[in-house]
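Changelog note: in this version the structure field was regenerated for every chain. One regenerated record is shown below for reference.
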Amino acid sequence: MTESFIDVLRKNRLFEHIEPENIEPLLKCLNSKLREYSKNECVAQADEKLEHIGIIAKGSVCVVKENKNGDRMIMVKLEPGDMFGEVAAFSENPQWPANVYAQTSCQILLIPSGMLYKTCGKACRFHMILIQNMLKTVAEKALQLNRMVDYLTIKSLRGRICAFLYDNYKKEGKSTFSISMNRNELADFLNVSRPSMSREMGRMKNEGIIDFHRETFKIFDAEKIVQSF
């Protein structure tokens, strides 16, 4: 296992407080495997049985909700070090809640979900730490999903955009920040049309509230941002 791969895994909360030299033995203990996916390949399909969780080792994926009419909404875009499937893994009859697609050619570490809530026969100390980290991660993910619901309950288009930008502004702690989604992905995430979103962002730019270029945004007037949602 390469040092760069270990560095990517250390970005994930799951491996917090686990020494780098213990990560590879832990992965063997978990019966994990590294799998490669091609661009646009389906990594996981909604309603199928969930038997593992995934951690992005290389590339990126999108978690997408799709209805019977083919309308799609991007729930989240995931980059190296990010994890998916961990919340559903703890349900009574675990199933994938959404489709997961490879946005680029990627490598994904697959960990059997059953290994995330029970210790191995050796009762490894670092396995116990991993289980504790998983519980914290699931709790944080539940809060994130709740925040996404908050976006969708905001009726106005500007309100949704502003709520999203303000959350990223607070997260980064600075007025200039970049997001991990392009315009189409952001429109899907906020469940709005791309043209309408672009027009509204253009109005906000003309009003001196924000500026933007591609995935980078700058907030000039945080007070007006807050007042919009």
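Spot check on this record: The first strand starts at residue 33 and ends at 37. The chain has a mean pLDDT of 87.
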